[in-house]
Amino acid sequence: MQVDEVLEKVLSKIRPSDEERTFVEELMKELRTVAEERIEELGLDVRLYFVGSLAKDTYLAGDHDVDLFLAFPLGTPLEELREKGLELGKVIAEKLDSYEIAYAEHPYVRARYRGVSVDLVPCYDVRNWRDVRTAVDRSILHTRWVNENLNGRNDEVRLLKRFLKGINAYGSEIYVRGFSGYLAEILVIKYGSFLDVVGKADFILRQKIIDPADWLRKEPETALKTVKRETEEDRPLIVIDPVDPRRNVSANLSWEKYGRFYFKAMEFLENPSVNFFFPPEKPKGNYLDELRKRGTALVTLLIDVPDMVDDILLPQLERSARGFEKALEREGFRVLGWNVGRKGKAFIMLELDRDWREKVKIKPGPEFFTERGRNFYRKNEKVWVIGKRLYSEKAVRESAVDVIIELLEKNQVSLGKGIRDAVREADVLLNYVPKELEREAYLFLSREKWNLKE
């Protein structure tokens, strides 16, 4: 199939239909009306801004999450913004279908309306980067910049987003470390189209610094500080935020996720296929067969952390997995890989080179001149006398599970701060996982979870 045919086929699936667009427009109109009425009732000076992919018309078909920002005047004290912003969010949400309080830099309201998730987020009414007070404030500027610069290339962004999702490189969350939607929009604006972006995967990596708003000329001191800081952090890319020279848009992008993009872009151009955008399901297999084939051992810790959101939990699980890796290697085990996540309970999986180690133990015996002493001498291979007593050494097998339990008891594993107690109370399983983790264990052990050559 030719590349144009592939892209048209993909677009037919990801471009919102006219009916869908009408639904989204009506939804946003209704939300604005509800919010304006509540603002007037409370007598607040608050402006409303829709931000994110819906406001930029870069959303994918079927993805209708709404971000409605409640912008307070710049002179509002931060505590007042948090308090009144949360109160306003709740009052608006009470007119919708349901809601809950969520937490980022400050509390916000996550509601549901007509089957759609609606985030009601307090922020400052910023006009430029110098006004920014909180991390969320820039979203208003991001939306404005994209709408002013996209120039009808909305479908090109859709293609890039869907491609990144398909190759598992989309999402800037700390536990994903991929491309954000905003970064995808910037790349299309900078380079022209989806095909231009994937065609320049190698060039973009070598170029390293992308400065769409020319901050290095307009604000050289601030922009150079950003470049220096991010270079020292060894980021794959430095994309100076076109609305704020202090920020690298790609700060969360990992080398691993850029590596996926690098190779998949090359493969797509060589052999275009819809499968890059909508990959087939990962292969199925039996993790126990995989263990037997590999001759390795699988240790799984099941951890009870019921109230922790993934944004906080997953980085702490990763830190703990690295802690186990270092501690176990000090104890003579090789850790061949690790995997973390949550399926009901949180889990840490560790693949070890073996499930036991030999350890020498010193065995004290009886006094040498007794009958028991003579028996001890006959039974043991290496025997020596200290004072009147006999001693020998004995090689014993020690289970990896026992080693892990002892390491935890002695506080010799570096663990994520918020989950230390939960990890110490974890169930430790050897070469076995519960049914809900069987597929996860197979994908981990077979490396199909990360395999680039799918």
Q: Could you walk me through the main structural features you see in this protein, from its secondary elements to its overall organization?
A:
This protein has 454 residues and is an alpha+beta fold. The chain folds into 3 domains: 120 residues, Beta Polymerase, domain 2 (2-Layer Sandwich), CATH 3.30.460; 127 residues, Poly(a)-polymerase, middle domain (Orthogonal Bundle); 159 residues, Poly(A) polymerase predicted RNA binding domain (Alpha-Beta Plaits, 2-Layer Sandwich), CATH 3.30.70.590. The longest helix has 25 residues. The protein is built from 18 helices and 14 strands. The chain is 44% helix and 20% strand. Strand 3 and strand 4 form a beta hairpin. The model has no long low-confidence stretch (mean pLDDT 94). It has a 5-stranded mixed β-sheet, with helices on both faces. The protein has a 4-stranded antiparallel β-sheet with strand order 9-10-8-14, sandwiched between helices. A 3-stranded antiparallel β-sheet has the order 11-13-12. Homodimer. Keywords: ATP-binding, Magnesium, Metal-binding, Nucleotide-binding, Nucleotidyltransferase, RNA repair, RNA-binding, Transferase, tRNA processing. One of its GO terms (biological process) is tRNA 3'-terminal CCA addition.
